[in-house]
Each structure stands twice: as structure tokens, then as C-alpha cells.
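Q: Predict the bound structure with 1-deoxynojirimycin.
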Amino acid sequence: MQPAISELLAQMTLEEKAGLCSGADFWNTKAVGRLGVPAMMVSDGPHGLRTQKDGGSVNDSITAVCFPAGCAAAASFDPALLRREGEAIGAEARAVGVGVVLGPAVNIKRSPLCGRNFEYYSEDPCLAGELAAAYIEGVQSQGVGTSIKHFAANSQEYRRMSSSSNMSERTLREIYLPAFETAVRRAAPWTVMCSYNRINGTYASENKMLLTDILRGEWGFEGFVMSDWGAVADRVRGLEAGLELEMPGCGGVNDQKIVAAVRAGTLDEKVLDKAVARILNIVLRHADLAGAAVGAELDLPGDHALAASLAADCAVLLQNRGSLPLKQDQKVVYIGGFAAAPRYQGGGSSHVNSYKVESALDAARARGRAVEYVEGFPADRDQREETEFLRAVEAAEHADAAVIFAGLPESFESEGFDRRHMHLPDAQNNLIARVAAVQKNTVVVLHTGSPVECPWAEEVSAILCMYLGGEGVGRATDALLYGEADPCGRLPETWPLRLEDTPCYLDYPGDGRTAYYREGVFVGYRWYDARKMPVRWPFGHGLSYTGFVYKSASLSAGELTDGGSVDVTVTVRNSGARFGREVVQLYIAPPENAVPRPPKELRHFAKVALQPGEETTVTFTVTDRDLCYFDEELGDWFAEPGEYKVLLGHSSRNIPTVLPLHYTTARRRPLTVDENTPIGDLLRDDRTAPIVRSVMASFSSQMGENGGDAVSAEAGMQMMDGMPLRAMVAFGGAQAAAAMPGLLAALRGAVPPKTERT
Ligand code: NOJ
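A: Predicted complex:
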């Protein structure tokens, strides 16, 4: 503890200390004026500031630049882009006196229906973690803190303040925690925001395993944990579990409970002191840095231009049968209300009072493109207006190309509720199908925060997904459509053919009390791949106006051992005629395992920019952790020895290069040896296998007589696999019974007893 902090603590009254553990109001911590402790302002986040105006109401926020939302930013697959976005938001925050930006939001996209998916990054924890770390580094490089949220397993809006996300520890560790883990270990966010929900029955705000054992004990977090707004159930229990700051405060009600608990001797004052010290540490850090920030200025025009350029790098070209890019001399009709009023951000706490919004139509007109506009359908509701519908079809028929700006109206997806289906409005689906029937160069531009079903995908020529690209999305769309920018985004989530295919279809969003995560670790592509299901577009997919080939892929060694690493290199060549960017994706495929595992998992990725004909070499370092799953019995990450594969691909389903990697390890899964241990487990373990084999050989004649020829050798082995050791006695008789104590002793000697988890 810094001396300044221990001195402050010594001077604070019990009431002042308890008071510091909750907000003064919606957006500020409390000051302790007599000791010179200032208040600190926090602000949403994540993709732009929602900072309350001086003297304004809670929802009256300052003008700020709205950057691409999480769904779009993640599609960049580019940590450098997230860093730039973070730097710009951090600089704006600093200029207006904000101490902590409430983001990034990294919850895993378990279902496409989650109302808040637009704010989150991915179905994949590796991608989400890398991007979150970069965003945090960007914001914090400006002397402003972040609050990574919502910790943890908050993947639905339905009953988000009470529902329990129930899952195995393995699922939590492999899917729902790693994005937080990577960000905390790598980028040290100043704060973490706990989620509203319960995890296996315990509120996140009272979850000692999460807030203390894992977050601080395992990952080394040194900042403070704040609650999501209104997430506190039992304040004293929360404080003991590791929740330092309650937001927005509760008119002092819970502060009094803390004071009363200390006075009654049911709460150790040292717990309170520790929490206060952690809050003071950040508040004082902010105060020091804020002093240096005096005079920092907002650069809204500069940030707007940045937002537009980032949006272009987030777009995903899903399909292109030749209509894109458009040519300047083509007669093009733009159809759909989103052409004039793009949907570019989501609703709820992340809503930014945007500096200015550019539409694709504004941009086309400013560039003198030969574009006609027919509204066709409104952007804010599902409504078919017959005259507009017919005008659109007719205009499309007489144009060289038709671009339909489709998407979800704001009322279809937002914080606070989940979607019930994955459809676009009927008015849009119908018009797209009709236009495609009369115009072969039909292009669909999508503005959505999450996947939608695209029943017309086979009928249209091209589909460009802009997600919710921020206030500069129109300028970016224009540049992409006309080939002045290359689409280089990749899908951070699978686009399924239909909702019924999704991993948690039967369990989402649960019964209102509990959401059972029955699909376990098989989330997103891990599910579709394991079940070999067709999808509309796979995770990692995205086209370019140029092409890329991989060559000379190699490993620095064909073998990896405990604690070791190997370098994987591959040369990427731009084989087309235009500048473009490729995302090289590295997946690991495990050998067949005693434990069910996804067929492959993303472990590394890199985005490279290449001129036509240019090539570059990308190097990844694969460590043994990259091969691991979380073994619940061991209570640790573990990889079985065997033959792994390193896959290098353009997407999760377009993998041109596969390299074998042999893994050896001295570690073993725990094996409890007693009369009920399955013989198969003993035969699979190289420590016990020789012992069991030699005993079996000596009983084989006896067992042969009993088993006879009724089963094939293969079936016999299968039956043996699940037989407990004691079955040897059942089939081997007195001789086996006499040998059993010696056998058990020999086996136990070969396998050290299981060490209990600490
Ligand atoms: C609730 C949201 O869940 C959280 O993300 C946000 O930061 C707070 N409200 C404050 O607006």
C-alpha cells in the first residue's frame, strides 16, 4: 500500500470508508473533502462517450464521436484498430475529465439472439481477449482507466439481473473467462465491472471464486471491482467476496449496512480497509493524471474521420458474384431507408449522442456518383408501403445495379431484451427477393448488430455486412462499394442458416431463473464443426477484392513438450491485382481424446496488408497452453500427449495448410486406483498399462473359456474398456481374487495418489 493511502486510511472515519465504497450519484465516486480525496467520474462506453452534461439529466449526454460498435470492431480482427479506437476514446475522455471509461464489453456471444450482442465482440474467447486487451491499452495510454465488463457469463438480457448462468467449471474456464483473463493479464485494466447475473447460483457481485480467487489470485488483478448499475444484492457479502465499489450508490443505505456489520463484529474492518485502499489507489492515480490533462481538447472532426476510416476496415464482404466493386459510370439505384439514415449504433447504455452521422447516400452524392434513391421501406419499422415497393422494383429493373440497404430497426435489438427470432423485417425480405428477380447486379448492404437469416442469399449477387459501424459508416460503405477501400473484415461469429441450428437453441434464454449452458464448450463454430453442420457463413469468413495464397508453412520443431513453444511461420502472398488485407487464422486441432473437445479452436491470428504481388511472412508462437483444455479433475489446464494439428486458414472452414505437431508431456490426468477403476482407463495410462496387460495375459485362458467365441476380439476390447477391475475376479475366479491385492498395490505404486485441489 502506498504510504499516502495508508495515511489517508488511518485518518478516515468508519463512515467515510464505507461511503467511499459506493457512488455519490450515477456517475461519480464520493469525494472526502476534508482529506483532499477528489471524486472520480466514470462514463459509458464502450464505443464512444456517454458522459452526462454538467447539470444535465442522466440521459443527457455530451456530444461525442460514435466509433464502430463492438460487433463491427471485432470484425476487423485487428488489435491495432481497437487500440486506435481506444486511444481516441481515451483522449476524448481525458478532455472532458472522465476517469474511467466503462468498457470494453467482452461477453461471449452464446446465441445470436442476445439483445446486446452488438456491443460484444465474439463467440470466440481468443479473439475477444486479444481485442479487449488492445482497446484497454489504447484508452489507458491516454491516462484514463477502463472497466472491462460484464464479469462474467452475462450472455443474455432476459432476466439479466437475476437469472443464473449454470455451467461446468470447464465451460466457464474455456469459454466465458479467457477474454477477461487475457485482458487482465496483458493490459491491466484499472477496474472490472461485475455482471448482474448469478453464476451457478451465486451473484457475480458476491462471487468470491470469480472476484477474488480467480481475478486477483490467479490473474493478478490490482485495480478495483465495481458493480454493474444496481447489481448488488447483499452488500456485505459482496464486499467480502471482492466487490469494492457499488454503483450507482444507493442513497447510503448499503454504506450503513457496512458500518453496522463492522460495529457488530460480523465484518472484519480489514476487509473494508483493503477495499478502500484499492479504490483510493485508482482515484488518486486519476487525480494525478487529470492534473496533467488540463487543457486537453476534444478533436471531434478528427475523431469523426478516424471513425469513418476504422468502419471501412470492419466491413465483411460475405458474398460477391461479380457485382462489386461498382463502377463510377454505372447507373445505380440505392434502395432502403438505411441508405439515407444508416443504423450505426445500438440502443441502451452505450448510446452516444453522436457528433455527426454520414449516410452512404450523402457520401455518394458528395462524390458525384450516378446514384438514384428510392426509399422502398422505412428504416425504423417493418412496414410495406405499396407505392414505394413498386417504385423500388421498377427503378432496380432500369438500373445497372441495385444496392439495397437492409438491416434491423433499432426496436429489434437493444440492451434490455433479447430478440425472439433472427429475421429481418418481412418488408425488407420481400423487397430484396423481388429486386433480385429483376436485377442481376443486386447488392445487399446489412446494418445489424448480430446475424440475421438471409433467405435470399442465393438470389442476390453480393452481400456486404457493415454491422453497426459507427457514425462514419456511410462514408466507409461508399468507399467499399466503389472499390476505393478493400473489404478486410472477417466474421467474429458464425452466421447460421437458421435459428434452430444454434447451439443453445433449446436452452436460450432459460426458464427465467436458470439458464443451463448445456452445450458446454461447444459454442459457435465449436458446435457447428463438431456436428459437421452447414452454416450460412462460417466464423472467420470474409472476402476481399483481391486474393491471398499461403506458402512455405513450417514449424520450428515438429515436437512440443511441457512448458515449451514452437514457432509457426507462413508466407502470405497477395495474388490479385489490388491492395488488400488478409487475416491469417491459426487453429489447433486436438487428437482424439478421452475428453470430448471441439474439432478445432482459434489460438492466434494476424492481419497483414499487401500490395498486389507482395508477400510477407507471418510468425506465430504456439505454446503448450494452446493445446490445452481445462481438466476439472486436475483443476488445471491440461493437454493429452499425442498428435495435434496446426491449421492455418482464411476462415474456420477454409484451411489450406495443415501441419502435424507431436506433443509429449510428463503430466498425467489424475487416476484413482481401486477395484472400481475401469480397465480401459488403466490401459490408456502408460504408467499402469504394462501392469494390467501382464496380469490380463496370465488370465487370458480362463477369461477366454468364460467369454468363448461369442464376441469378436474388437467387441471384447470394447467391453473390457468399461469393465471395473473387480470384473477380473468375476471372470477370473479364485486365482484372480488371490492376485487382486497385489495388483492393486502395484498399480497404486505406479500412480501417485491424486493431489487435492487447493
Ligand atoms: C448497465 C450496463 O449493463 C452497463 O454496461 C453500463 O456500463 C451501466 N449500465 C452504466 O450505464
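A: Residues 679-750 form one domain.
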